[in-house]
User: What shape does this take?
Amino acid sequence: MAIEKLFLSRTFLVGCVILLTQSPAVSAEGAFPGLVLRGLLETLGHPLKVTVMSCWGESDKLEVFKVLSERYLTCFVDDHISRFVEDINDHQTFLVVDLACPGTKQLLKSAGLLLFMKYRWLIVNSKFFVEDNPSEEDQVQFFEQSLADLSLLVSSEIFIFIKQSANNFSVNQIFKHFELAPFKVELFGLWIDGSFKDERNERVTSVRRLDLQGHTLQASMVVTNQETLQHLTDYKEKHIDTITKVNYILTNCLAAYMGAHVNYSVVSTWGYLNTTTGRWDGMIGELSQLRADLGASPLFFTADRVAVIEYVAMTSATRSKFIFRSPKLSFTENVFLLPFDDLVWMCIGGVVLLSSGLLVITGLAEWRVPLTVDDPADATILRPSFRDTLLVIYGATCQQGASILPRSFAARTITLIAFLVLMFLYGCYSANIVALLQSPSTKIRTLEDMLASRLKFGVHDTVFNRYYFTHASEPTRQAIYERKIRQPDGSQSFIALEQGVDKIRNGLYAFHVEQGVGYKVISETYQEDEKCGLQEVQYLQVIDPYYAIQKNSSFKEHVKIGLFRLNEHGIQFRENANLYTKKPKCTGGGGKFVPVSLVDTEPAILVIVWGAGLSATVFTAELIWWKVYRWFQDWKGSRVIRMVH
Assistant: This one.
């Protein structure tokens, strides 16, 4: 369709004035009923600009201009065979053409899609205005014959004036339900004795014409498993092609609501752009190539698809996410540091240091008083050394006791209080450790957390999963694919549904799957305690899938209204609830007992390893120091002997 853009708004307005004053004096030999047009525009209420493409004389134009210019921007365009108007306010434009003028039919043919999109049209035959009593049948028949080869489809807003008497007109709309259908003439209003009477029973055009009278709509749906065709409406095998089954039922309800029939074609993919040929395949290919009116399997909203298909409404609240069982807390945290708050740890350190300092002070005082009952060489008596007292308090902290004790009553009182306080703290600490070792982690909430975790990854082997994972460009998602999905040997972790769900059960495994599909298998195969701790993280950067139709479809408003009604009446909710399984509730008492593994005790083992390494290092250093010292003493002694001799 080739349509020439004539002017932008301001330039076009100047051009209108010039054409109004310099147009050739071609008269239609009769006054155009401008008052009827104004009554129609006032009833519509929307158009702000009226463009008249005619061959009328200046007097006729001036009369129409006077009638409309008070409220509407009115422009007249001559020589309109190859000219057309399309500006930023095209949705508020009302176009008037005259079939009595040469070239009007060619203009209407060149309009193409704009006959049933964007614009409102008034198509008149000025010859009828000068006839005395033209019959309504002849006028209607003339319009039907003149417009027979045009696409005046069900969404069109085409008005015609039918002259009934000198001052009375009927305003009708003419349209077809589809290309090969006969014309329908619909009474819009009557102009009687200088006033316009609205005769519509429903103001919304698409609602008035909702009944498609048995027209067959072509629908394309995606089926990845041929068994799906045997279970489209019986709610069996709900986890296979779920989104298609939901929308197959909704499409049938939609067709019944619109009074139409549906003929389905089956494809194996939603449709992706072939960069080599520049063509779309699958369901999008059928919609873009006008082989299908409806896309009966909703698809995700992406920018590259907007140019070739029309998104209408969300019909399936489903999303694909990574599903995994929450790992034990010890997999993401050091559980030996979690029982106490930072302030409590600081207080414990303060108690240890304060107790050690007080013991040193009391020790210094008690060793100044000679006690004959004590043996100064007794190894069980605490000496006034900060190192020894710190070791005693550390042993109390770990509930290991002490091999040495102070000899005075004051010092022993300090030791007793320190042991008592640290005993209570140790009891709280131990109880918390037991609880934490059985607790799940909730730290993994984002893709970045998953990438940094020890989880292994798998993806449900579907067409759209393979496409989105292999075409990921965002850094984190690309890293997940490169480091977690694609294996070093070149293979990829795209696996079957049952296999992936079984790996989730064993833990430390994240499986990317459609939620409803995955939860159905989980509900049927997991024990009750195994359904606890399930977490989700979304990977795809898309919203819920949309129902799609052919681009520039004349049925767009019909489909939109029908789908909204299905939603409002609860039919959409019912079908989604019947076919999609929700996340199972945890009714297993929080899960079964989890045995302690090496991962849980890793911090304690690291303490042993580092402690043993530090001890070995200190021992080696002491041994070397002692040997060097002995060697130095021997060398010093031998030197003295040589000097004596």
User: Anything to note?
Assistant: The CA atoms of residues 95 and 612 lie 92 Å apart. The longest helix spans residues 602-644.
